[in-house]
Amino acid sequence: MKKILFYILAFLLSVPTMAQEGEEYKMELGAGAGLMGYLGDFNGSITKDLQPMGSLVARYIFSPYMGLKMNVSYGKMKGSSDDVKTYYPKFAQTPYQFDNTLIDVGFVYEYNFLPYGTGHEYRGAQRLSPFVFGGIGATYLSKGKNQEATTKEQGSGIFSANIPIGLGVKYKLGERTNIGLEWAMHFCLSDELDGQKDPYDIKSSGLFKNTDCYSTLQLTFTYSFMKKCKTCHNDDE
User: Fold this and answer.
1) Angle at the Cα of 122 (from 9 to 125), degrees rounded to 5?
2) Do the beta carbons of residue 84 and residue 96 sit within 8 Å?
3) What is the separation of C-alpha 132 from the centre of its chain, rounded to a whole number of angstroms?
4) pLDDT of 141-165, one tens digit each?
5) Could you tell me which residues come within 8 angstroms of residue 103 by beta carbon, excluding any fewer than 6 positions away?
6) 97-112 vs 66-80, strand pairing mode
7) Please, are residues 138 and 157 in contact by the beta-carbon 8 Å criterion?
8) How many other β-carbons are positioned within 10 Å of the β-carbon of residue 205?
9) Percentage of the chain with pLDDT > 90?
10) If you ran DSSP here, which 8-state letter would residue 204 be given?
11) Gap between the Cα atoms of 8 and 223, Å rounded
12) What are the pLDDT digits (tens) for 198-231?
C-alpha cells in the first residue's frame, strides 16, 4: 500500500513539470490582416475612412519576454477635405479627394509583460501575454486618384521614414502556432501621405510639425520554427 501511495504522490508531483514540457523556438513566420487609417490634414479621427491592409511577419525570439519583429505591410489610404471641419480656401469650391496605396517596412522591438511560451525551460510560462512595441520603419506611398494629380503624377512615389509605437496581446494556440492582435500608430516624417503638402501653403519646420501619420489594427498568425538548443549552455562545462 505504501508503494502505491508513493507512486501516486510521485506522479502528482510530476504533473506540473509534464504540463510545461515543450520546445522553445527562435523564429516565427506568418501573416496578418486588418485595417489601416490615415490621420492628417483631412482626417482627425482614428476610426474614420479605415481601409483593408495585409502584412507578412517575421519575428526573432530573444527570450520569453523579448523579441524583434519585421513586417512588410500593404494597404490603401483614402480621404477627402469634406471629412473635416477645417476650412481650406483652395478647396472651397471643389473638395479634394485622394486614394493612395501605401507599403510599410518596419522593425520593432517587442516586450511581453508575461513570460510568453509553453516550454519547460521557463517556469511560469504563459500562453497569453499583453505586449508593447516600438521601432523604426520606412513608408512608400504611391499616389492614386488624387483630385489635383495629373496623369503623370498619378502613380508617382513618396518615400519617408516612420516611427511605429503600439500595443497588443498574443496567444499561443499550440506549441508552434501563435495568434496576435495589435494596434500601432505610425508617426511619419512626411506631410504628403494625402498628396498635399501644407494645404494652407504655410511653411512649417520641426521634425514632426504638420506631418501625417497612420494607424494599423491587425490580427496576425505565425508559425514557430528553429528549436532552441537546450544543452548549448553546457558545452563549455
Assistant:
1) 85
2) no
3) 10
4) 988 766 555 445 555 788 999 999 9
5) 72, 73, 74, 139, 140, 141, 142
6) antiparallel
7) no
8) 6
9) 46
10) -
11) 37
12) 655 555 444 445 578 999 999 999 999 988 776 6
- Give dist(CA 149, CA 133) in Å, integer: 36
Distance CA 217, CA 174 (A): 23
Total Cβ atoms within 10 A of residue 29:
13
Sign of CA dihedral 207, 80, 77, 151: negative
8 A C-beta contact, residue 174 and residue 152 = no
Locate 46 and state its grid cell: 482614428
Close Cβ partners of 93 (under 8 Å, ≥ 6 residues apart): none
Helix (H) or strand (E) holding 82, with range, is: none
Residue 226 carries which DSSP code? E
Q: What is the model's pTM?
A: 0.77
Cα–Cα distances (Å) from 102 to 5, 71, 73, 92, 235, in that order, read: 66, 14, 8, 27, 48
Cell of 122: 521557463
pLDDT tens for 97-112 read: 888 899 999 999 999 9
- Cell digits for 34? 486588418
